[in-house]
Every structure is written in C-alpha cells, then in structure tokens.
Amino acid sequence: MYRIRTFNKISPVGLNRLDPALYAVSDSETDEDAILVRSAKLLDYDFPKNLLAISRAGAGVNNIPLDRCSEAGIVVFNTPGANANAVKELVLCAMLMGSRDVDGGIQWVRQQVASGVDVTTVVEKGKAAFIGPELYKKTLGVIGLGAIGSLVANIALSLGMDVYGYDPFLSVDAALRLDRHIHVVKDINELYKRADYITIHIHYTKDTERMIDAKAIGAMKRGVRFINLARGEIVDDDAMLAALDTGWVAAYVTDFPNNRLVGAPHVLAMPHLGASTPESEQNCAVMAVDQLRDYLENGNIRNSVNLPAVSQERSGVCRLCLIHKNVPAMLASITTLLSRDGINVENLSNKSRGDYAYTIVDLSAPADQCVIDEVTALENVIRVRVIQ
Ligand SMILES: NC(=O)c1ccc[n+]([C@@H]2O[C@H](COP(=O)([O-])OP(=O)(O)OC[C@H]3O[C@@H](n4cnc5c(N)ncnc54)[C@H](O)[C@@H]3O)[C@@H](O)[C@H]2O)c1
Ligand SMILES: O=C(O)[C@H](O)COP(=O)(O)O
C-alpha cells in the first residue's frame, strides 16, 4: 500500500485513478511515499525519508526545493501543457481588460446604482472615461514560447495582431507548434521596442527573478501594456510601479497580487486564476496521477523536472531502479555485483541529466537482499528500489 499525501485540492477525476486497494490518499497521510501538490509551498517541508516522488499538477515548480529533492532521490514531476489552454484564454481576457477599462466601467456602474442614481440616465455620458484601444493591428510580444506562450502567440495572430516571440531555449516541439507568421527574434530588445502588449510565459528561477526590471521596461515602448500570468517574482515591482506612475507602462495585468500592487492605479490583479478551470484541473490531475503511478508501480520516469526521462517495458522477474550521481563506471559497478551473484540482466536503460542519472535494470531472477544492500552501498548511489 502506497501512502500519498495531497497538499492541495486535486481533481477527483485524477484521484479516482488511484486504486484504493493500492493507495491511501488524503491530506493527512504521514510518512508518505508520494506527494500530490499544486501551488502549496514545500520549500521548507521536512520530507519523510521514504518519500519517493512529488507530482505537481501544473507547470511551475518554484514551490518545490528541486536541489534538495535530487540529493534525496525524490523524483519531481510536473504536467507540461496540461493547463496551457486555460492560461491562454485568461491571457486573452487580460489583454482585453488591460486595454478597455471594463473593470473600471463595471465598478462605476455599480457605484451609480449603490448611490441611488438611475444608471440608465448616466451611462452614455459616463462611458467616455473607460475608453481603450483595440487589439486589432497592434503588436504583441510573447516572452517564452513554450506550452502557453506558443498558444498565446498563435491565437493573437487570429485576432489580427502582429506577433513577436522571444525564447532563447525554444524546443523543436515548441517551434513546430508556432505559426510561421510569428516573428521569432533573437534579441529581446527587438520585441521590447515594437510591442504594444507584452505577455510573459517563462518559469520563475534564480535566472528569471526580476528579469522585467527598470532597464527592460525602459527598452519597451511608452504606453506598453504588460501581462504577467507567469510568476510575480519575475517582475520587479518597484520598477513596474514607477513605470505605471509615469505612464510608461499603461497597464499591468497580473495573476499574482500583493498589497502594494493592488493599491496602485492601472494594475489589474487576479487571484492566481490562470489554471483554475475544471478542464485544466482535470487534465493536470490525470497527468500528475498517471506519471506518479507509472513511477511507483514500474519505476518509469516521464516529465520529471529533476531527473531524466527513462521508461522501459517490463521484462524479467524483478526490476531494480537506481537514482545515482552522473559519474563514470556506475553501470559497470552495478552490473558487476549482479553478475557476481549469477543474475542475468534482461534489459537495462540509463540516462543522465546534469549531476544525476537514473538506471532501470530488469533481472532474470530475484536479487537477494545482500546484493541489493551492496548495490545501495556503492559510492554515488542515492536510492535503490526493487519492484517485483
Ligand atoms: N497563472 C497560472 O495559473 C499559471 C498556469 C500555468 C503556468 N504558469 C506559469 O507559466 C510558466 C510557463 O508555463 P509553460 O507551461 O508555458 O512552460 P513551458 O516550459 O512549456 O514554457 C516555458 C518556456 O520559457 C522559455 N524560457 C526559459 N527562460 C526564458 C527566458 N529567459 N526568456 C524567454 N524564454 C525563456 C523556455 O525555453 C520554454 O519554452 C510556468 O512556469 C508557471 O510559472 C502560470
Ligand atoms: O504553474 C502553474 O501550473 C500555475 O501557476 C497553476 O497553479 P495552480 O495549480 O496552483 O492553480
């Protein structure tokens, strides 16, 4: 029986894929073998020794201490693309709301009614205060052309926008998803100097923290409208507030409110709603659960953010799964111990990612505990699992 602790509400459509005969799942499990999480912060969480995996039902993993997980042999998964459509649709909403003062207008209508005015008598005169430009024929800059950015870039074309994209690490898959009419630039300043609207879709890491600072904003066009449904930390709030104050930035629409931003003019702050649709919550939960099950039951790794992707059809009678450091002669050391005991290797897969590597070995005979202990004791081996 595996114990899975949930740290957020995970869609039952995903959770129902966990057989209750094999899995105990709740938010009160202790000594858990695995974690299912959305945005709950695990940075200071004291992981149980037997924790094997964390599956993030969503894209961003800045709430998970990846280095600490790798060192402890904990595999971290996310669900690439599973919530991208939900975010794309909210970006469209954000672009429109940052343009036309729909929010201000709706609030004004409510205020009229609340103060006893017959709103029908003031609408036509009052509406002039809420005028705003159209998206059609304007230029959109998309920073980050991954799962979300590529969808946003493509749909903006169909709104009649001219689209510039920037992504120095563009994957082949992502590039193939992009409409050929999108101008992909190598220098972000090419995007900054042209865009009337900029939307950012990159991960928050040490490298992207406050990437949108005073210098970046200064390189943008005066009157730019900036949309941030990625992470609050990517934008330097001081620089953004100063630019809103002078009108250099006409509107800042963000999914990451804080008290300073919410009080400022021309800021529209939503409560992290990007992925909050039933469809996206289900997609993410299904993917997070399926990947987790495949790892727990078969040792296969798909869509990990800290270990390589390694999957292998089951063969033999017993499977060894090893997380180890990416150093020379690991495979030789492991197979030497196995062959010394007369155990034949039916199939083997090994891949590395940065400082770490993962090996799956299917064996023709069950490995006895002595040999497992010896493999576990090898220098640079972090974790060994035996799956029957
Ligand atoms: N508001 C929400 O609810 C919500 C929902 C989903 C994702 N997100 C955020 O959006 C981020 C992106 O999600 P995704 O699914 O598109 O991820 P993704 O991995 O598919 O795409 C990220 C892209 O950013 C690119 N990139 C990395 N560094 C860059 C840089 N310095 N400049 C330009 N591009 C860079 C990568 O090459 C990649 O193509 C997530 O990490 C998360 O923080 C927010
Ligand atoms: O990174 C993500 O996937 C989003 O920020 C969504 O987060 P959530 O699952 O907590 O809504």
TrEMBL record:
Catalytic activity, as annotated: (2R)-3-phosphoglycerate + NAD(+) = 3-phosphooxypyruvate + NADH + H(+); (R)-2-hydroxyglutarate + NAD(+) = 2-oxoglutarate + NADH + H(+)
Keyword annotations of the record: NAD, Oxidoreductase
UniProt domain ACT: residue ranges: 319-388
Keyword NAD: yes
TM region positions: none
Gene Ontology terms for molecular function: NAD binding; phosphoglycerate dehydrogenase activity
Pathway field: Amino-acid biosynthesis; L-serine biosynthesis; L-serine from 3-phospho-D-glycerate: step 1/3
Keyword Cell inner membrane set for record: no
Catalytic activity, EC: 1.1.1.399, 1.1.1.95
UniProt similarity note: Belongs to the D-isomer specific 2-hydroxyacid dehydrogenase family.
Role according to the record: Catalyzes the reversible oxidation of 3-phospho-D-glycerate to 3-phosphonooxypyruvate, the first step of the phosphorylated L-serine biosynthesis pathway. Also catalyzes the reversible oxidation of 2-hydroxyglutarate to 2-oxoglutarate.
Protein name: D-3-phosphoglycerate dehydrogenase
Species whose genome carries this gene: Dysosmobacter welbionis
